[in-house]
Structure formats: C-alpha cells, structure tokens
C-alpha cells in the first residue's frame, strides 16, 4: 500500500512464468474477482459504472505506458535471468513470452481493444473462483 492508500501488487513470478504452487490452473489474464468488481460498483458481468470505467481507462493507460518502455523493462528482466529465481526456469522462453505480452506489433488503437478484451476475459473467471476456493479450503479459511 502506498502513502496515498493505493494497493499495489505485482506477482513477478506469475507474470514471467510460474504459477502459484506450480499449478497452471488459472487461465484468466489477471484476477478480477466479484469482490473487486463490487468495490467498483459493478458485478460479475461487468455492468458499467463510473469506477469500473475509470478502472478500464487506468488499465489502458498503464499498458500503453509500460509498452513505451518495453525494451527497458525487458532488459532489466534479462539482467536477472541467471539469478536462479524460479520464474526463470523456462529459460530463454521466459524473456520471449514477456516480449510477446507487450504486443509491440499492434497499434495503440489495437492495444486499447486488446486491453478491453483482457478485462472482459478476466471478469469473475470461473477458474479463478475455483482456485481461490481451493486456496481457502487448503489454508483452513473455510
């Protein structure tokens, strides 16, 4: 959490190659649960709301900004590839996949459509819900 109360979390391992627990069960581009949607005054279907629309704008802006710095980001990650971190167990494929995620061949307009489709694919994803339930049972929360 930053000084202004924003929550920031990046799971670099998951982003680069390895899934939590080594199980590739999650297939959504990112976690967008019912609870997160409720906070944005939306629901599992992604009903438009001022907050959810703002979330989409921020996702688009964030992706386009990261994309502008893609080569620097990739270089920084490449410098760590011999670190022995589990997220690099895929070898050179890890960096290749990271590069693909920036979609450098797309126009900005195409990237906007891409980000909106990633959001849509992530909306209350069934496999995410199942994995979260599994984790709750496994950790004795339920």
Summarize the structure.
With 142 residues, the protein is an all-alpha fold. 55% of the residues lie in helices and 0% in strands.
Describe, in plain words, how this protein is organized in 3D.
- Helices cover 55% and strands 0% of the residues.
- Helix 3 packs across helix 6 (108-122).
- The longest helix has 19 residues, at 50-68.
- By secondary structure, the protein is an all-alpha fold.
- It has helices spanning 12-16, 34-39, 50-68, 70-79, 92-101, 108-122, 126-138.
- The protein is built from seven helices and no strands.
- The protein is globular and about 40 Å long.
Q: Count all strands and give the number.
A: 0
Low-confidence stretches: none
Number of helices: 7
Class of secondary structure makeup:
mainly alpha
InterPro entries: Kinase-like_dom_sf, PI3/4_kinase, PI3/4_kinase_cat_dom, PI3/4_kinase_cat_sf
GO molecular function, one term: 1-phosphatidylinositol 4-kinase activity
Domain PI3K/PI4K catalytic: 1-127
Keywords: Kinase, Transferase
Keywords:
1-phosphatidylinositol 4-kinase activity; PI3K/PI4K catalytic domain-containing protein; 142 residues; PI3/4_kinase; 7 helices; mainly alpha; PI3/4_kinase_cat_dom
